[in-house]
Amino acid sequence: MSIPRRINALDWTATRIMLNEHGYAYLPSILNQEECLQLAQLYDQPTTGFRSHINMARYNFGRGEYKYFSYPLPNIVSQLRSSFYPYLAKITNEWEYQLKTGRQWPETLEQLTETCHQANQMRPTPLLLRYTKGDYNCLHQDLYGEIHFPLQVIIQLSAQSEYSGGELVLVEQRPRMQSRPMVIPFEQGSAIIIPVRDRPVKGLRGWRRNQMRHGVSELTQGTRHTLGLIFHDAN
Ligand SMILES: O=C(O)CCC(=O)C(=O)O
Ligand SMILES: [Fe+2]
Question: Where do the Fe2OG dioxygenase domain residues begin and end (predicted)?
């Protein structure tokens, strides 16, 4: 099945409910093993177009490395990004309505990209990450500019047997309460949808925002590759 058809076939009602109840949504089997391997191998291929290579330790972001793709994105990355977007935009538009921001996200990724470009956010944000023993990713938010689409997707490219540790961690900050940690199960080929910066939660006096951060715990063994899909471009 093609990538757009796979994404179209997902149960988006259940996904929206899971995201709103738990703060993240888990989507099993988005990519098959071969696709995961091909994507992970792009990391070392000299022909892959990357715009930058980040050593996380250099910026105190953690330990490990990642590479941002340049435009044009590899076909599979581009298909995943543009196929996920319209479903996520529907969810975020509900959030904007609940939070009474007056904001509406466009229906297609092309339109969002155009909005980003007008705000001088021109650089693509999809990235490949690689962690080896001892590597970790500090809790962070992927904002990259004034325009930040509220949801992002992370896809696991490595099999559980290839590494130990390296758990995806999500922390939700709750006003006047202690933060809530979540360790997310993350099998090869599965995707996780998470909020980029915050999410609406219903309180006693209406909807408010809970700040969210994500990171990865230390790898104790092996190698772990992930694909990050962020929908806004970077300045
Ligand atoms: O490697 C991971 O699971 C997290 C990746 C990440 O931080 C991202 O895609 O924004
Ligand atoms: Fe991230």
Answer: 118-234
Q: Is the ipTM of this complex over 0.90?
A: yes
Pairwise CA distance, residues 197 & 213, whole Å: 7
What burial class does residue 145 get, using C-beta atoms within 10 Å of its C-beta: 0-12 exposed, 13-18 middle, 19+ buried? middle
Kindly give the distance from the C-alpha atom of residue 196 to the centroid of ligand 2, in angstroms, as a whole number: 8
Q: What would be the CATH architecture of the domain defined by 3-229?
A: Sandwich (2.60)
Rounded Cα gap, residues 20 and 99, in angstroms:
14
* Distance (Å) from CA 1 to ligand 1 centroid: 26
Is the overall model pTM greater than 0.90, yes or no? yes
Provide the residue ranges of all domains of the chain, joining segments of one domain with +: 3-229
Q: What is the pLDDT of residue 8?
A: 98
21 Cβ neighbours under 8 A, 6+ residues apart: none
- The helix/strand/coil state of 137 is strand
Q: How many CA atoms does the CB half-sphere of 223 hold within 13 Å?
A: 10
